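Q: Fold this one first, please.
A: Sequence and structure below.
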Amino acid sequence: MAAQFNIGDIVWAKLSSFPPWPSKIVRPKKDIKKPKGKKPVYFVFFYGTEDHAWVKAENLKPFEEYKDQMIKANKGKRFHQAVEAVEAVLRKGGGAKDTDDIDHEEVVPSSKPVQKTYSREPLLGKTVSPSTSIGLKRPPESLGAEASIILKRPREDNESDLYNFDESEHETESDIVTSKDDITPTCLKIGFLGLGIMGSGMVRNLIKTGHSVMVWNRTPMKCRDLVQAGASVGGTVNEVVAACDITFGCVADPNAVRDLVFGTSGVLQSIRPGKAYVEMSTIDVETVQDVAESIESRGGRFLEAPVIGTRKPAEDGMLVIVAGGDRSLFDDCESCFLAMGKKAFYLGEIGSGTRMKLVANMVLGSVMAGYAEGMSLAERAGLDLQTVLDVFKEGPLNCAAVRSKGDAILHSRFEPSFPLKHQQKDMRLALALGDELKQSLPVAAAANEMFKRAISLGNGDNDMSSVYRATAL
C-alpha cells in the first residue's frame, strides 16, 4: 500500500523516466484540476526547478529515509542544488506555504496513447499530470507507441519567436531548459564508429558528459583530437564492438554501412549476447533491416537511430534522433541521446526511424531547391540579395535554415555543414521509398535533378546550399 503524506511533507518524487527529485507536497491552485482515476496522487513542488506536478503516491518516498540512497545515485549539479535547497528549508524549520488539507482523489492515467519524454530533471516552471506528456498540457492524439527523450536549451536573445501562439494551450521551446552538465552518464562502455562531419561532434559531446568512449575511424588521424579529449581508440571495428557494451555507427551511405557491419573485422564479428549496435547513418530500409536481422541472429540487440541536423547541431548536441527497433536498447541509450541531441523519438518497429529520416530530408532538400531557385530569380530580377534576405528574416520564412543558407548563397561560402552529395543521396533514397510505396513525388524528383546537376558542376563536397549554383546559369 502506498505511503500517506501530508501537505508540507518533504519527499522524493519520481515522474516517468525522470530521476527521483527533492520535492514538497503542496496544495494546488483552484484552477488546477486533478486527473480522474483510481490511484491516489499528490500535488508536489520540485525544488530547484520551480515545477509542480501531480505524482502518484506510489512514486513518492520520505525524504530523510531515502536521502543517502538518492544522493549516491545522482551526481547531477542541478540535482545537488535542489537537495541543498531542501536542506536549507529543513534547517530553518520551513514547511509548506499553504497548510490546508488536500483531497486525495483516486486517479489513473488516461487510456489515450500519449507521448512520453525523458529529461534529466523535471520540466521547469510547468505543471504536468501523470497522464500527459512532459511539456504539453494536454495529451496529444494518436501517437501510438511513440515515445521520446527531450532535452531543450534556452532561446538565444537574437532568436526569433517561432512559437507565437497561445501559451495556455502549448509550451514554447524556451520553457524547457536543462543543462548538459546535469546528464548522468551511463556506466556502460560506449563505442563509436565513424568520425566524419557528424560523428566527431557527437563523440565530443559524449565525452563532455562523462561517457566512456572508444572510437574508430577509417582514417585514424581523425581520432587524435578525440583521444586528447578523453576517448580511447580501437584498432579495428570488431575490436571496438568487443570492448564495448553499446556501439554506435555513423557513416556516409548504405554501402559504407554494409562494409562496416559485414566486412572483414566488421561489427558482426564481435556481436554476441550482451552486445548492442545502434545504426545512426541515413540509409535505406532494406539495408537497416538486413543489419538488424544479422545482429539479432547472433543474440545482439539492434536499434536504428538516424539523426536530423547538420554539423552545428551535432557539435552543440542539439540533434533530433528518430529511432526504431529494440525498445530496451533505446532506454539504455538515454544518457547518450541526451548528450548528442535535444530530442529523441522512439517510433516503433525497425525501419520506422529510417522512413522518418528520409521524409524529413526529402522535405529539407525540396525546400532548399526552391529557396535556391527563389534567390536565383530574385537576382535575375535585379533585386539586391541582402535585401531579399532581410525581407525573409522579418516574415514567415524566418528560420535558422533560411538565415544560414541564405548567407552562404549571398557570400558564396559553401563550406560543408551538410555535404550536397549526401543530401542528393537522401533524396534518391526517399524517391526509391516513394516508388516502393507507389507514392508520386514530383516536387522531390525535380529537386533531386537540381542536386544532381549541382554535383555534375563539381559541388558534391560543398554544402547543400551550393545547389544554388545549379540555378544561376
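Q: Good. Now the second chain.
A: Here it is, same layout.
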Amino acid sequence: MLSRKGIIPEEYVLTRLVEDPAEPRYRARERRARFVSKNGNCNVAHKNIREQGRFLQDVFTTLVDLKWPHTLLIFTMSFLCSWLLFAMVWWLIAFAHGDLAPGEGTAVPCVTSIHSFSSAFLFSIEVQVTIGFGGRMVTEECPLAILILIVQNIVGLMINAIMLGCIFMKTAQAHRRAETLIFSKHAVIAVRHGRLCFMLRVGDLRKSMIISATIHMQVVRKTTSPEGEVVPLHQVDIPMENGVGGNSIFLVAPLIIYHVIDANSPLYDLAPSDLHHHQDLEIIVILEGVVETTGITTQARTSYLADEILWGQRFVPIVAEEDGRYSVDYSKFGNTIKVPTPLCTARQLDEDRSLLDALTLASARGPLRKRSVAVAKAKPKFSISPDSLS
C-alpha cells in the first residue's frame, strides 16, 4: 500500500515486511504451514462451528468484522427496508382514513398529498432523513400518524448510529496502524555480551509514536508429552530484551530486540544444523501499543521459521548522525553481516567457555593482522644507489 503511493520505495517494503529484492522468492523444498504469516495474519481455519447464533449476540462486532462489500450491502439494505416498511405503514394509514379515495378532498387527511404508494414512499424518506420539502406533512387529524412519525424518527436515528458507527470502526481499525510497523525478514543468532542471543529488528515508519509499546515472543512447536499426548501447537513464552531493559520499548528509531539464550530458554539446545532440519520450530513476535493520535490499541505480528533464522550474523547499523539530527537508512533495515559465532548450542557454550575464548582471540587477531598488512603496504621503500655513496 505504501509502495503504491510512493511513500516508501517498493524494493524496501512489502506490506509490513522489509525484504531483500535480490533474494529468490522460491524454495525447492516444501515448508511447514505457518501458525502466523509474515504479515501478521493467523493461519487458522475454523470449521464445523455449530453454535452460529453466538455471532448474532454481538451484532456490532459481527458487522465490523464483515468484509466491505457485505457491510455496504447491509448499510444500503437497512435504509431501503426501513423506508419501504414505513411507506407501507403510511399508505395503510391513508387508505384506512379514506385519503386515497377520489373526489373526497374536503376532509382533512392524516398526511397531506399522499395519493399512492409512491407518494407514501417519498414521504417516508422525507420523515426519516428530515429532508422536509414542504409538500407533505402530518396533520392533527390522526393521533396514530403522529405516533408513527415519532417511531420512524427513533428508528432512523438508531440505524444511523449503528451503521455509521460500523463504518467508522472499520476505517479506524487497529491493524491499519500496524501496516507501518515493520519487522526484519530474517532473525539472527550471534554472540552478544558473551552469550548467544536471538535478535530481530523492529521499526516504525510513521512519525506519530506508539505509546507504551511492548514486545512479546513465543515459540510454537509440535511436542509430545511423557504420557504420549501430541500437542500440535505448543506455545512457550520467552523473555525479550532491548537496550533499555524490560519489554517496554521507545520506538522512535528502529531497535534490535534480542533474547538471551540461557538455561531457561526453549532455544537452549538449538544448534546451527537444526535450523535446516527442525521444521516444527516457529517463533512468533508480537508488538503491541497505543496509537498516539487515536488512542486505539494496535498490535503487529510476524513469525520466523527455522530456515529464516541466520546463524552467525548481525544486523548492520542504520542510524547515523547527520547535520545535528539522527537519520535512519531504511534501505539497510534487513541487511546483515557475518560475525564469528560458535557452531554449537548455548548449552555446549556454557559447559565449555573455551570455545568463546578461542573465538574472541581469533576475532581480536583478525583486525590486528589486517592493520599490520595495511601498515606494511603503506611503509615507504628506501634504496641506496652507488652515486649517493660517492
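Q: Anything worth noting on the second one?
A: Residues 1-19, 24-28, 367-390 have pLDDT under 50 and may be disordered.
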